[in-house]
Fold each of these.
Amino acid sequence: MYLCAMDNDSDILEQLAEREYEYGFVTDIDMEIVPAGLNEDTVRFVSEKKNEPEWLLEWRMKGYQSFLKQEMPHWQNFEMPEMDFQKISYYAAPKKQAKYSSLDEVDPELLRTFEKLGIPVNEQKHLAGVAVDIVFDSVSVTTTYKKQLEELGIIFCSISEAVQNHPDLVKKYLGTVVPPSDNIFASLNTAVFTDGSFVYIPKGVRCPMELSTYFRINAENTGQFERTLIIADEGSYVSYLEGCTAPMRDENQLHAAVVELIAMKDAEIKYSTVQNWYPGDKDGKGGIYNFVTKRGACRGERSKISWTQVETGSAITWKYPSVLLLGEGSEGEFYSVAVTNKKQIADTGTKIHHLGANTKSRIISKGISAGEGQNSYRGLVQIGPKANNARNFTQCDSLLIGNNCGAHTFPYIESKNNTAMLEHEATTSKIGEDQVFYLNQRGIDQEKAIALIVNGYAKEVLNQLPMEFAVEAQKLLSLTLEGSVG
Amino acid sequence: MLVIKDLHASIDGKEILKGINLTVNAGEVHAIMGPNGSGKSSLASVLAGRENYEVTGGEVWLDGKNVLDMKPEERAREGVFLAFQYPVEIPGVSNINFLKTALGEIRQHHGLPPLSAKEFLAMTREKQKLVEFDAKLANRSLNEGFSGGEKKRNEVFQLAMLQPKLSILDETDSGLDIDALRIVSNGVNKLRSKDNAFVLITHYQRLLDYIVPDVVHVLYNGRIVRSGTKELALELEDKGYDWLKEELRVSESIQ
């Protein structure tokens, strides 16, 4: 590393670099886990477990069929690791599951787990105004504040429940933004998705609280394949946040989620992610493979979808939250902070498809690379022939900490309409020894100095997060980078 | 307060400081002058603990504590403040937030609780006024987009906020127009007390018209070659450094 630490410093820094992932514990709980392997029977098994209607099983089979036909993507800026889909178990659930009508029925060990993770399950003790749905391995464990939301006609539940209780809505919208054949990971998800969240905000309703889902992988050799579907009907508004952690294991685990957002006329969806899956150890052993397909469709006029992501975890992150701007005057936003430390890899960015007239989009991406981390921004801004007066502003910045990391940017622009206005700004900078020394000279130690500088750099994105989570995200950024300067 | 004994330091294997001896007492202002490349800024950097300098010999004491054993942040918390010649910009970090963090660290070091938001705000207002620092600048990102003069004034504002024992001003006067120079000097004069001390590193006698030093030193080729009163600075202004260099050459050849 380029900052020459003083002798007594290096010990401390070494300790910090080897600091353990805080959420790496395993919950010892009675689980039902199906044997590893993927075939039609697996798909049928999952569907049966969930007591699903015939149409859904058929839809899953479509996904499975296209999964078989597809190849692994090859365009990303890293070597795709070997993935043996037959070695993954596609269903794992706490045994005492089924439905909990109240928190008292939830396995106390599970509740302790969430307490340890700092997840507010207990509604009394709770962060004010955040409703939480929790997915533990393959099933949704509990959803809080359900009653209060129901009074407004808001549906916030696990997708399995939605299939049972609101089948028409699910059938109408599921797979309409990310079709079963979209890409190999989306196809796999279609075939074997186990749970996830479902949100429906009725016409004209402004959801009065943050909706939040917390994902936790616990069992060994399992994958997590959640599916989230959010529909904001005309004139409605919702802000949704997801968080995720996993135990430390030497084997890589696959997380292949699909998220679909649909915004009708004058509706707005704000979707925030704080991703902190286990990143693997300092030698790059273990960690989550995070291969996620997230896409939103602004279907109505003046609708708006905004993605905010803080990606600090996972061994590999491969995700490009995208927006289809169909409605006239609709708007898409993508705000991202992606951090790679140790041997982490992130290939992330967005795709914005301007299809309607007068559509607008804004992309702010802040990559931070430390240790031996590799960070790529990959973005596509596409302007269709009918998208008159479309506008895009893109800013992608990279910050390097140390000499062994890498930052890469792959911005693509495809415009088929000459009225489009596109702006692109990009910078690459290195945390300066001078900046750190300046802060040291004012009494601030090295770790805090880095944290200040990095949070300042990422501020524009962090400001997009709901208040409570912005504070969490700031802490997470500092933790992820601890020991990265030596 | 500050005692420097036979301090040697080098950078990239090249010796820059070749045996500095200097004692600064509480309540005093010392000016260090000297031609380009004489080691003035290096001395400031070594005292602050910049890591690319290697101390190869000597001692530095601050009120009986061994400064050379401390990390840069510990020196700062003990009361060593360096007003930088070229203050850096740190985008996105608000000036006020940064000062709050710094002050908190220093207070914690001395076993004091952090100031309440109200107390901190009151202090900020008072010090802004004292050193004539624009409130708008105080709320912006740390030095981001500041002019050279604004950056220097921010250094003096920070000095006022952090209340160090020993302040080293590294060419704080360079690049300032006459009004800014007056404001900066007034600020420093108001902050002078019997409990703190200042070391002014400067090229020009001009600054010393505003901040009157107790002692003037001339640094040349890594050593303090002459010390005197304010009159020494006037003499240098008048005659330049060449006569001094010549005199030194003569005395060295005699030895």
Note: The mean pLDDT of chain B is 92.
Amino acid sequence: MSKVKFLIPFLILFIFACGEKTEPGTGSLELNFSATYDGQPLATDGTMYDFEDGVKLRFEEIKFFVTEIELTNNDGATTSISEANLINLGGKTATTAVDGQSINLNNIEAGEYTSIKFYVGLSERLNNTAPSDLPATSELNDGIYWSDWESFIFSTIAGKADFDLDGTPEQGLTYHIGGNQSVRSKSFPGAIFIQEGETPKVDFSIDLKDVFMPNGVAFDIETFNIVHKNTDVMESLADNMTASLTRK
Amino acid sequence: MRKFIFKFGWVIILLVFQNCKECPPDEPGGGEPTIGDLENIDYNPTPYDLPQLVDFPQMLIPDDNPITDQGVLLGRMLFFDPILSVDSSMSCASCHLAEQAFADGQRFSRGVEGGFTGRSSMAIMNVGFNRHGLFWDGRSATLEDQALLPVEDEIELHEDWPNVIEKFRRHPDYPTKFREAFGISSKSEITKELAAKAIAQFERTMIVGEGSKFYRAQILGEEQLSDEELNGHLMFFDASRGFLPDAQCFHCHAAPLFTDSDFRNNGLDSVANVADFPDLGRGGVTNFQWDNGKFAAPTLWNIELTAPYMHDGRFQTLEEVIEHYASGGHWSPNRDALMDSISLDAEQKADLVAFLKTLTDTSFINNPAFQDPFK
């Protein structure tokens, strides 16, 4: 029997030898982001969506950074859990749009937190860097930096509009938002319990109808169909995107 | 019963160690390499000093394939050696010629038996910075994955990796080179994965830009662009504050890499339905129909040297390319939202071409480190 006991540590080693290493006293958190239009899953497969006056919209690209993600506890103390993550909600059918995109964050100090906060886009601190300042592992490298604007692209929404109501959307729509004037952060209240061995999930959704028709007032997509330097419009869209991003 | 458990337990212990080692290589048929037959050869890999160009991002190097002088040398040899092809007639370099910035100047490249590939050979420059997948359709996530495919492609090199490995093992130099690059202790440890790692290391060193006028003028500030080049620059980056048209180039070709490596339908084909594209491109990889007809945006470094242009080499000159983009291209349901007609006069088009030529870096194509090591 003693020989069998001798083997037990090796058996345990076998089971755990190649597993993922986690710090003791820490846990993980999954953040899931998905897109909707008027509350319905948003497909980027050619599906058309009602805008105003019979105009229909098609979305083809929806990307945005979430940066400087932090959790706040009851005492108001904050814990940083991630610097930058790119959310890409393109390539979705109505079925797969429900799945959205998840990011998994590990080694978070265990505890009870009361809210989560992040920048929808880049923080000013991060936007004042350039790709050459960043470590190779930074997810900001997955995005685009426009040196002439001295800014990363915080978010991209692209698609088409059918203005002449002939059923064929001819007008391209491209919104590239960046620049320090477009920096926006948002706090999402709600309890989050981090504990060892557990991965709670927090779901977020952005509604594109609310981005382009906030409070029922249509954004002038006919005039502003390509936006990458009109700071007023970029600010307005940054406001709308931030307001439209909600925690489920 | 105890005896049985005891014996069985030792089997498990052996499995513990086996489980945590790298998987053993596929053993090709033939050959009886001696275990430890390379151990008398020094293994002292020297970290490769990868140049860091001003404003360029840091290259992401896989933890399991650090770049070393020995790995780069081996990769360079493999890149230029026709040993990778079925009849020893072609190498990677046959379709990636230094003088054409490691493209081949053909609409469709020819393989070992004279057949044509379905797409134009991509130029190999700054590929170590690519984070969105290699090939026109991005089907290989990493350079290591990419390097494996042409060898067994029926049109390209049409060889089998087990045969190639056998040729390496019989070769007078390669076992030593593999030992020096990766520390293997016997010929039997030579694998296609190590060959691909070596080629990937070599390709990561192929960084372009430093010898160009753009780099000297716009990054280092040591030189001035001509008026024509500057106008082209302002239109390319929409940086003229409104006195010149926005040519919309920078959205997909942002500096300093002059590509975002993403996939787009840039209006090459007119189809009524996305299922009708003659080449599915990215959609053939993702199986997402809306990706059909999308191809990678290539880097524009050395674009003057990499004609013909597009995945099928349909444009022979940069002037044709500018005409295409100015026209907005052909309509199809998923044509990129930025593809729309742009009002550019003849002088402005010429200025754009002049600017593109500032991205020519002949020091890259003439760099001795990228030439055939067998010559």
Note: Chain A touches chain B at residues 1, 3-4, 7, 10-11, 13-14, 17-18, 44-46, 60-61, 91, 93, 130-132, 134-137, 141-142, 144-148, 158-160, 170, 172-174, 176, 226, 228-229 (CB under 8 Å).
Amino acid sequence: MGMTMVEKILARSAGLEKVVPGDLVTVNVETAVVIDQNFMHNRMREPKKVFDPDKIVIMLDHIAPADSPMRASMHKAARRFADKHGITKFHDINNGLGICHQLVADFGYAIPGTLLACVDSHTCSAGAFNCAARGIGHPEMSYVCATGQTWFPVCETIRYELTGELAPLLNSKDIILQIANDYGEHAMHNVEFVGNGVTRMSMNARRTLATMCAEISAEFAVFEADERCQAHIRERNPGIEFEAQFADPDAVYAAERTVDLAEIEPLVAYPDTVVQNAHPVSEATQDHIDQAFIGSCANGTLDDFEIAARVVKGKKIASGTRFIVTPGSQAIFLEAIRLGYVETLMEAGAVVTNSTCGACCGYSNGILAPGEKCVTASTRNFKGRMGSPEAEIYLASPATVAASAIRGMLTDPRELI
Amino acid sequence: MRINGKTWKFGDHINTDLILPGPVMLLPFDEQPKYAFQANRPGWADEVAEGDVIVGGHNFGTGSGRPAARSLRELGITCIIAESINGLFFRNCANYGVFALECPGISKFIEEGDEIEVEFGQFTVRNKRTGEILQGTHFPDMIMEVMAAGGIYPMMERKGLLAEPNPETA
């Protein structure tokens, strides 16, 4: 009996020949990502000594720059932690700023065939790079920083073969909403994505899909490291050697499912829950939308800027609707300026903000008031997520959000282009 | 290991934003737990007592890595049983010393307020009102040891792995 991709990475990281579902494995962490949130209220207790300063990366992202003395102290503590423990890979406000999962991708920190850990739930994002990556919470990050190890139950895997190609203007967000509608939550299961539909996807598109697997409660979400993926990693880590892991031909899965991307249409998840809560945008409510947001670790990429700019080019956003766009990193922001996307968005009436988690987690740059409705291309639509618990959050793709900003109501982007 | 307690029932897809809302994180750490479920069940945090147990539906704890399990433990919750539990939330439960158990069928097995006994050797739940027993899903001893130790920080303290907390970010 062979192993799935996730099983092979876990076995390798545990120094074992083989693992099977039901095992509990102690694994070595190749990359530990520490973020500003770890230092808030000492949620991650500081270890006396870190296991290896070269395997720890620190990123200030959730509220960067700081919005309050409390969060300023949190950033100060992160700088002190870096200095004290000799951690040099440090993304501060003035140095490679961005959302941690975006930076992990853009700097090539996620190495195929290895394990990456961070407090944050969307760490599964790095699964796009054949990396078993996941959020583990604050106390566990303390343990990882101290010992370089953690534990995982080996869960069964569900294999998704993606075939065909998405229609123009659609996004991996539409794929995950379709999967969440058809198959519900995936708690205590890994997911793997393979197939010619994946081969055609950009690394950004794969990462959006991997990131959103947090919303179906997957344990690990992993892609194969094809040529495109391997080139991405080699470009950012000259001379690196790694062992990408592919599933064995006789790997055993809890389920094997095929998703035809060509059949997916623009979807929007209605407020409060991502799972089994999406509707075709073409049939959605026509209520007024107060705010449209594009950003977060799921949709703050250059691809997302390009598509948003394409949808709004030469148009104006609806009066009474705010349109906020937040880049995934400072580098993406700069490139979006150079390519004219920022100008197009701002001419349409959008506000383009600094790179931070911002409105997605209700920390800054677009908080909702009671009774307001927001359509967002970010990660989740939970009650109270973006401000008041009496606001309503609709979750959709960047093109759908941009089109909805123009019309001031949920709009299928294909009606505008 | 046996846990006895009075149950509070919740539905499917209970997420971490409901347990620990984002805006609440600006408050001092000690004040954050009392805002648990204020959006979907106002007043609950005042009623829950030490030793109570939560019974949830599918996908309990979906959402972020924030210390939502800590909030529930601070309010007195010692055990969470649900149809299914998000893996990150399950880790946080263990690491903050909250017993957590996946137990398919639990939603229909329990009515709110029922007293139950959870037996963590066999991973069974006994409804003291009906006398019926339901089988939960086994997990390895090591996870149980972390839960029983009160979480990972007490274990790290014992091993001398932790530095003094930074007073500026307390």
Note: DSSP finds seven helices and seven strands in chain B.
